[in-house]
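Dear colleague,

Thank you for sharing your sequence with our group. We've completed the structure prediction you requested, and as agreed, I am returning the results in plain text so they can be pasted directly into your records. Please verify that the sequence below matches your submission; if there's any discrepancy, let me know and we will rerun it promptly.
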Amino acid sequence: MLREDRNGGTGRLTSTRKEILSKSGEVIPVLITAWSVTEQGEEVATAGIFTDLRDRLRIERKLSQAQEKLMQTEQQAVIAELAGATAHELNQPLTSVLGYAEMAKRKIGDDDTITRIIDTIISEAERMADIVRKIGRITKYETKSYVGGQRIVDLDKSSEPE
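Please find the predicted structure tokens below.
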């Protein structure tokens, strides 16, 4: 490589990443820079610098992991904010539905068929209110399996206190 023009010119090797094998058999990533020493146009020696990259690569891995964790934390914060706003917005009309259903039930009186229908409306609206409360308590992003291999937010786990 030192004698090829494509690596920095004849007699020069620009920084090149390689792996070398230590005496113990460990593979060590290194950065190699080398050059030829000439006297009167004749090569008399070769010099090189080998830079051990293990520490740098370890730091880069840690940095990458920290960046990934930061992105997840930011994503969770956005989800929690969105969940709070959504819960607030859904709670307003839901409260009205429950109130009007209760009023209608009182006005109907003894009509069993309509009373059962209104009771179903109230029951389902209360179920929706429970879901809205869970959405409002989301503090982390947990998912669960869903139809067709999809993943959806697991409201129970996401709204559990930490």
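Summary note from our side: Helices lie at 54-108, 112-136, 155-158.

Kind regards,
the structure core
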